Amino acid sequence: MTGKARAPRTYEVGPDAAGERLDRWLAGMRGAATRSQIAQAIAEGLVSVNGRIGKAGQRLHVGEVVEVRPRVISDGSGVKPESIALDVLYSDDHVIAVNKAAGMVVHPAVGHRSGTLVHALLHLYPRSKWPGDPERAGIVHRLDRDTSGVILVARSAAAHEALSKQFRERTIEKEYLALVHGRVARPGAIDAAIGRHPTDRKRMSVSARRARAAVTTYEPIEAFAEATLLRVRPQTGRTHQIRVHLAASGWPIVADPVYGRGRRAAGPRVAGGFEAGATAMPRLALHAARIRFDHPVTGQRMDIGAPRPPDLEAALRLLRREGKG
User: Fold this and answer.
1) Is residue 67 within 8 Å of 48, Cβ to Cβ?
2) 9-68 is classed in which CATH architecture?
3) Do the Cβ atoms of 253 and 178 come closer than 8 Å?
4) CATH hierarchy code of domain 87-169
5) Do domains 9-68 and 87-169 have the same CATH topology?
6) Does 160 have pLDDT greater than 70?
7) pTM (predicted TM-score)
């Protein structure tokens, strides 16, 4: 196995994480590895708390120092490039912006060992020296599988660190389009802490016993009889933040199988009781439409947008034909 050692990363536990499990706290960080990778790292003794080997289920306390030591990684030969079409919005020697298609998983994980964005990147940029874990190929942040839109990828360790720092410091601006159930009359903000659901650990909730601060702003773009197209800007980066906040406000995203109405894919009702989202919007109606960030090398403010996807446009056309209500 060939590779190089990288410096360990250290984090201090803040008040909002007191009492949280070590593995879940690490999984909730920006740019975190997958839960299975975190579990493996802890099992291999690569994670310590105040100098002692950490355990996945141990509870954290304010002021503790968590250190994560990276593996000496291979050259990435375990992840095979795959010829998968990508819509590249921007590319230079330091950063790539891709318009991710709905249904594409970002990086390999349990149940998704092929067909991911990482596999496509390895094929499209075969000479890149991707930073970090080869299974992540420079991925800086994530989008859910069924969320379409712009995602950033770093092509060097320096670019990865610079972009990760901007995410941590919240200087990166992200803008989404969300088609939701219900009429939203005016712009507003949702300020509600998010944590694991108290009974369903696969979901997030604003009613969690242990939660972290989360803020989302929104504004209506187009209103229909029983649905609204929103422009949404998350001010923080919690797991499923937009989906949780909008659902908690009474406006679940169309076709959201986890937080949607009845917890199944269903679209806004239109004339004759026909459910538009069940046909024209076959997946979560959420699109990462724009991202603004400082270029990791030049410092220039970048503004990259991803066009509306065809399935969202089809749902909107159907709603317009049925009338504004």
Assistant:
1) yes
2) Roll (3.10)
3) yes
4) 3.30.2350.10
5) no
6) yes
7) 0.75
DSSP codes of every residue in 183-202: ---S-EEEE--BEE-SS-TT
Q: Which residues are catalytic?
A: 144
Neighbours of 112 (CB within 10 A): 15
CA gap 258, 283 in Å, rounded: 12
In whole angstroms, give the CA distance from residue 64 to residue 233.
Answer: 32
Query: Would you call 145 exposed, middle or buried from its count of C-beta atoms within 10 A (0-12, 13-18, 19+)?
Result: middle
CA distance 313 to 304: 20
Tokens of 24: 């879940």
Fold classified for 174-290+304-322:
Pseudouridine synthase (3.30.2350)
Give the DSSP letter string of 208-236.
Answer: -SS-B--EEEEEEEEE-SSEEEEEEEESS
**pLDDT at residue 5 above 50?**
no
Give the C-alpha separation, 218 to 233, whole Å.
6
pLDDT at 262: 53
For residue 40 the two structure tokens come to 């493996």
Question: Chain-centre distance of CA 98, in angstroms?
Answer: 14
Rounded CA-CA distance 297/175 in Å is 23
What tokens does 35 get?
Answer: 């839960």
Tokens of 148: 């379409």
Stretch 182-208: mean pLDDT: 92
Report yes or no: 278 and 314 within 8 Å, Cβ to Cβ.
no
Percent of the chain clearing pLDDT 90 (strictly above): 58
- Domain-by-domain residue ranges, the chain? 9-68, 87-169, 174-290+304-322
